[in-house]
Write a structure and sequence with these properties.
Layout lengths: L16 E2 L2 E2 L7 H19 L17 H10 L7 H15 L6 H17 L2 H26 L5 H81 L3 H29 L17 H12 L4 E7 L9 H21 L3 E10 L2 E9 L13 H13 L2 E8 L5 E10 L8
Parallel strand pairs: 3-4
Antiparallel strand pairs: 1-2, 4-5, 5-7, 6-7
Helix pairs in contact: 1-2, 1-4, 2-3, 2-4, 3-4, 4-5, 4-6, 5-6, 6-7, 6-9, 8-9, 9-10
């Protein structure tokens, strides 16, 4: 039973096994079968018409030239799977053909065996065969010139080159083009793979940015809504409930506006939606005032201190990161801080913008909103993207007592790092 070789199969590959028995290693390619049949048929026709390459040999009958012809025709079946073996045996068949009346088909099929040995053989053979055939051509030319002492002996060298050296040289060119095409294909596949990896990373980064932006924009409002709705449900006082509902309505409207802004940023192709500008440091006063209103019922008092000497505008990513850090820190204070001051401080030390938010650390009575820890992760991601540093954790206040402090240092100039 035979079996087809897979594409790209090289000589020397192991035999296939089918149905528990060892099979032949290949089935000849249909083109190789066609070459063998045409070569054999053409050679027989040339012999029948008496078209020989040489005169009659006294010691051999004319039909003997059919033996090398049959051998070389059979070797055509091995031109893809065992090209070097075919070339070695074909060389002996060609030499034997010189002692007969000769057949043109035998010579032509031998040139194809040389071509196939370079094209389909091992890389070492592809380098060695052209050099070998060139040396053989030179040796034959010089030898016959020395023997005949006639310039017509150069024709023998030309024939030798046409039979051996030129087919190998052509095969080298074809093989180089084929290898270059394969290299280009692999390079294109690698480029496509890298592009897909870059696309996946970009999608992941964009999803992370969207999640971080959504959390920072909405968490503050939802935390205030959760705390005041719990207070309205748990305290049976009309004034308290009315005040809580007012805060809930205000945060609902603001949260809806923030959501619309985010949707506007995502719908870049929707001309009907005009996304608002990104928050800046000049908006911190309004942010702290809103937090002061939301936290009044929890015993928190929010204070904003801007200690910067120069209060000019900074790079948009820096101002947005600082704003979001303050926003998330105020949200966390609203959720977890004990009654007392919540201080927001801005400062600038050289090329670094300092953002610090501190609140009283302790147990607080009354309603509290749960936390997920995503806010701290988002703050660290924002600071890391800018090459800054951030610390968040308990600390000791100057006048005594424990506080929770978030302190971030953001470089205001490109290439400056807080690390």
């Amino acid at each position: 039973m035979y079996w087809h070789l897979p594409p790209g199969h090289e000589a020397g590959a192991p035999f296939g096994v089918l149905d528990g028995s060892v099979s032949l290693p290949f089935r000849p390619h249909r083109h190789d079968v066609l070459l063998a049949v045409l070569g054999l048929s053409g050679g027989v026709l040339l012999w029948l018409f008496g078209l020989h390459l040489q005169g009659n040999r006294a010691l051999m009958a004319p039909w003997v030239c059919l033996v090398p012809l049959a051998v070389v025709s059979g070797l055509e079946l091995l031109r893809r799977t065992a090209p070097q073996t075919g070339l070695v045996i074909g060389t002996f068949a060609l030499v034997a053909d010189q002692f007969t009346v000769g057949n043109l088909a035998t010579v032509l099929m031998f040139t194809d065996l040389v071509y196939a040995a370079v094209l389909y053989g091992k890389p070492s053979a592809a380098r060695r065969i052209p050099v070998t055939t060139f040396l053989i051509t030179v040796a034959v030319t010089v030898g016959f010139l020395a023997w005949f002492r006639n310039p017509q002996a150069l024709l023998i060298g030309v024939v030798t080159a046409m039979v051996s050296f030129l087919p190998s040289l052509t095969a080298v060119s074809v093989r180089n083009h084929r290898d270059a095409a394969e290299t280009a294909r692999l390079h294109a596949e690698q480029t496509a793979l890298l592009a897909e990896m870059d696309r996946a990373q970009a999608v992941t980064a964009e999803r992370t940015r969207m999640a971080r932006e959504l959390h920072d924009m909405v968490a503050n409002h939802l935390s205030a809504i959760a705390i005041h709705s719990t207070a309205a449900l748990s305290i049976d006082d009309p004034e308290t409930s009315r005040g809580a509902l007012g805060v809930i309505r205000e945060n609902s409207v603001d949260g809806l506006a923030e959501m619309r802004r985010l949707i506007g940023l995502l719908r870049t192709g929707d001309a009907a939606v005009e996304p608002a500008a990104s928050p800046t440091l000049t908006s911190l006063d309004a942010l702290v005032e809103q937090a002061r209103t939301n936290a009044a019922s929890s015993g928190l008092s929010c204070v904003f201190e801007d200690a910067r000497e120069e209060r000019g505008p900074l790079a948009a990513p820096v101002e947005l990161a600082a704003y979001r850090i303050v926003q998330e820190s105020l949200t966390n204070a609203l959720k977890h801080a004990a009654p007392g001051p919540v201080t927001v401080r801005l400062g600038q030390r050289g090329p670094l913008l300092t953002v610090e938010v501190s609140s009283v650390l302790g147990v607080r009575d009354g309603p509290r909103a749960p936390g997920s820890g995503a806010g701290l992760v988002g703050m660290r991601e924002r600071v890391a993207l800018l090459g800054g540093t951030i610390d968040a954790g308990p600390s000791t206040a100057t006048g005594g007592g424990d506080i929770w402090r978030v302190r971030a240092e953001l470089p205001v100039e490109e290439g400056v790092s807080g690390r």
